[in-house]
Amino acid sequence: MFIVGERINTTRKSMDQAVKERNTEMIQEEAIRQVQAGANTLDVNCGSLKAEEEPEALTWLVKTVQSVTALPLCLDSPNPEALAAGLAVHQGKPMINSISGERSRYTQVLTLIKEYHASVVALCMDDRGIPQGKSQALEVGIRLVEELLTDGISLDDIYFDPLVRSLATSPGSVLETLELMQDLKARFPGLHFISGLSNVSFGLPERRHLNRAFVVLSVASGLDAVIMDPLDKDMVALIYAAEALTGRDRFCLKYIEAYRQGRLKA
Amino acid sequence: MFIVGERINTTRKSMDQAVKERNTEMIQEEAIRQVQAGANTLDVNCGSLKAEEEPEALTWLVKTVQSVTALPLCLDSPNPEALAAGLAVHQGKPMINSISGERSRYTQVLTLIKEYHASVVALCMDDRGIPQGKSQALEVGIRLVEELLTDGISLDDIYFDPLVRSLATSPGSVLETLELMQDLKARFPGLHFISGLSNVSFGLPERRHLNRAFVVLSVASGLDAVIMDPLDKDMVALIYAAEALTGRDRFCLKYIEAYRQGRLKA
């Protein structure tokens, strides 16, 4: 499982304050904790700032985080100017979060992916918004992946996010999301699938149980990347367990190695 | 989900002692705790006792437990004499754990099922032992279910246990077990599926993660009954969550009801 650490995000109050105050120590501490917990890349998001402040803030975030870790980062913004500014100072192969089938976003972000040889999170949506129902989602997904391939992006650099909806407001949509991944996986072997783990439980109580069940079902349907809090050891351990049960961890070697590193115990 | 509470079992040291000493209070306390936690039936098992002591002990267990709960029980023994003795004093519709395709066991337990109009746990095995590989398991399973139906047992009274193996010793068998349930479910709509939740992780560290992932995958494959510790609130909650995500809890009504009853929080 490819883990994108989600903690450096200004939708969290403490991070919002840390970015506004340019609190180097606090940001670096969040970075180091996530790296030590096993994150494969760190998402950096300061999208809650004013649009005109975001490019400079994202640039500062990239530099600040990369001065304490050799990991590449996942630059997370709907704002192409902010992405461009952050990418200009990024070291290594970046990930961009995100592109979609929306025309203006597609064109602007594609240029950046190519310029920086980035991998990219591809959201299952277009100018009509998030697709209604599975057949429309499949159509939007296929078109988006094929367009990226036609435009020269390697399949291995595409992380498709099926955009799971909340179970509370869209009953039935979870099964459709799982089927969407299975169908796209069959059509594009090698395509990566990525998801956040908490949208599914929005509006429901004791959300962790729903998030946990969702990640297990998603792993079984092909999920191979997650945007999550890597400090949530129970969740990380459950992902290792799901991979072992579904034949993606031969002889449980990764599970046992994670155990030996103390990563399965809270 | 139909929850069979597993705590009254003499493989647990405290229960072995309680049964040997005929400690009514201790047994009844275990019964009440499981009922209050939401168990639908309680397994009673004193199979660790000497064979000649088991019939009287099981009879005592049935009476002792049923004097504090109106729930029917699941009488658990490989010994038909013990089952017969316990069934003779049982109130309500009992469950028998278990029958299998083994010839002598099949014949003896079938008589008891019919005499007491019991439901039954049907283990996927025969005189050759536990089947090797999926095609043999499917063959054994189909033959066992068809034989029970032919012998007049209603499909609704059969709880098929696919006998999941340990991931440590049988890699690949977990996926086969899930497929076995799906295949049998397609062939016998209405057949129940039951499983314990801990065999899958035997021999591996931090087993709870594997048990959790297994229950989620099993619910998605049709599991509708479990033999488990109903006091494990995290596991119960995860089962509710898995049912909600897989379309078996319309509008999350059961999940929300369980939350209101305080059953989703440790």
Verbal overview:
The structure is a homodimer of 266-residue chains. Chain A is of the alpha/beta class. The first copy, chain A, contains ten helices and eight strands. Chain A has helices spanning 13-20, 24-36, 54-66, 80-89, 103-116, 134-150, 173-187, 207-220, 233-245, 253-260; strands at 2-9, 41-45, 73-76, 95-101, 119-126, 158-161, 192-196, 225-228. In chain A, strands 1-2-3-4-5-6-7-8 form an eight-stranded parallel β-barrel, surrounded by five helices. In chain A, strand 2, helix 3 (54-66) and strand 3 form a beta-alpha-beta unit. In chain A, helix 6 (134-150) packs parallel to helix 7 (173-187). The longest helix of chain A is centred in the middle third of the chain and has 17 residues, at 134-150. The relative contact order of chain A is 0.11. The mean pLDDT of chain A is 96. The A-B interface holds A 167-168, 171-172, 174-175, 200, 204-206, 209-210, 212-214, 216-217, 219-220, 234, 237-238, 240-242, 244-247, 250-252, 255-256, 259, 264-265 and B 167-168, 171-172, 174-175, 200, 204-206, 209-210, 212-214, 216-217, 220, 234, 237-238, 240-242, 244-247, 250-252, 255-256, 259, 264-265.
